[in-house]
């Protein structure tokens, strides 16, 4: 049951990143292309097919920018290793940071486009 919170944070992070990308790009085709380019290396850079510790520094850094990396880390710890929820808190917080960053950027773009910026 604790893993449900990790899965919920993962879904929220991915949904918000998708909303953010579609807000940034007005054309649907370009938004889909950008999403594809951003998410296509997820399996390679997430540590699923190749360990992150053995990657070059830039690749390991890029892996941290993909929500799937943090979800996979929590999945392995929670489901495969059967660790307590306290070990899943950091990956869950990382996923929530993805959500919050996407939310702030999306709201900022909406406010800027509608010129209703209030101080």
TrEMBL record:
InterPro entries: ABC2_TM. It is a multi-pass membrane protein. GO terms for molecular function: ABC-type transporter activity. It is found in: Membrane. GO terms for cellular component: membrane. Residues 3-78 form the ABC-2 type transporter transmembrane domain. Keywords: Membrane, Transmembrane, Transmembrane helix. The chain crosses the membrane at residues 6-25, 37-62, 87-112. This is ABC-type multidrug transport system permease component. It comes from Algibacter lectus.
């Amino acid at each position: 049951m604790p893993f449900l919170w990790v899965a919920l944070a993962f879904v929220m992070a991915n949904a918000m990143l998708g909303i953010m990308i579609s807000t940034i790009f007005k054309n649907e085709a370009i938004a889909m292309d950008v999403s594809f380019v951003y998410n296509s290396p997820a399996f390679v850079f997430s540590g699923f097919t190749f360990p992150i510790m053995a990657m070059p520094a830039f690749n390991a850094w890029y892996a941290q920018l993909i929500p799937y990396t943090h979800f996979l880390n929590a999945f392995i710890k929670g489901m495969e290793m059967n660790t307590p929820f306290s070990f899943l808190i950091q990956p869950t917080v990382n996923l929530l940071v993805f959500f919050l960053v996407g939310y702030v950027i999306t709201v900022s773009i909406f406010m800027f486009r509608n010129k209703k910026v209030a101080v």
